Sequence to fold (435 residues):
Amino acid sequence: MLDLNYVRENLERVRAALEARGFPTAALDDFAQLDQARRRAISESDRLNAERNAASREIGALMKAGQREEADTRRRAVGELKERIAELDRARDEAESRMRELLSTIPNVPSESVPVGADETANKEVRRWGNAPQFDFEPQDHVDIGTRLDILDLERAAKIASARFAILKGAGARLERALINFMLDVHTSDHGYEETLPPFIVNANSLFGTAQLPKFESDLFKLEDERGLYLIPTAEVPVTNIYREEILDEAQLPMKFVAYTPCFRSEAGSHGRDTRGVIRQHQFDKVELVKLARPEDSYAELEALTRDAETILQKLGLHYRVVTLSTGDMSFASAKTYDIEVWLPSQNTFREISSCSNFESFQARRAQIRFRRQSGGKPEFVHTLNGSGLAIGRTWLAILENYQQRDGSVLIPEVLRPYMGGLEKIEASEKTGAA
Fold:
């Protein structure tokens, strides 16, 4: 959430930022009107308070002069003033409360380094790594590969739950588990993140803190009981909220966490997009990186977090690129986002496998996560960052597509073989009758 005073004092800059995002400015117009009403209430309250104070002094003088009747008349007038002042104070508080409600619906202001544009066509490529594999046969997509190898079952998953769920079987399930353990090991041992296993169910305050609520409730799975709990859409939510409403010491920063969780998203409004296979599922696994940092360090921490996520793809030997998202393509809470996109041969293009974002103080203000500098002074809001390190399902399918062989098998990247019990390739079993 943006700072109320910042928005009040920089209304036109915030308006320009919303326009660059393609975001309606009506809430900002309402904010300005409420701010004017608030200022009027404060000004009138101050005037009446001054009048009441002057009247109180006059009453004292009248009492000393023995003019009790006149003093009583003035007391009644002062009583009316107090009632009017109380009304004005309530109006001020109501205006401020409504202003804060509006702020919760306004997105973050993009960093000046973010390219301005309406959508993903304005994204800027930063770098590429590796080369796309070359095949002497027509490469298949992950659904055909997984089905033929009998490691992916979408039809029975739909029977159990609904469309956009998957069953992974045999070596497919083991590959998923191998990827989770491999990523956790790299991020903890090589990159210094602290592993944490958070709850997979959170309350509304946690989702407000990371800005999924109130705007994106339709994308969430809500439990139908009186506690108002939700399945997590990403580990970002529980991990970022670990220190909600707390004041940290400067010496504790940066704090770096890595967490594996399943993620649950209703994907409202995404019907017809990426519905084949496991690219966009209602339930999927992810290893998430989360950082809490000092404001002056957060952009350096964003670069480091992005490189940490890239390392996984490099170790797996997967071709990828990094792009900076434009103002029209970045998330509601982000100030700057890098997308890491992996190469998918079946689509002959790059697809997102991680989004690495700096939210600056936007989430911390909503979640009230602050720190106190060693030099003293008032507590300040930390900057929060996160990124997928990586999305497991998309890494899984990228391995199937990039490591597929002419004979129908799939090679296992060398770094994963110890996690796969030494298995070097996934082949069709005799019972499937697949070639």
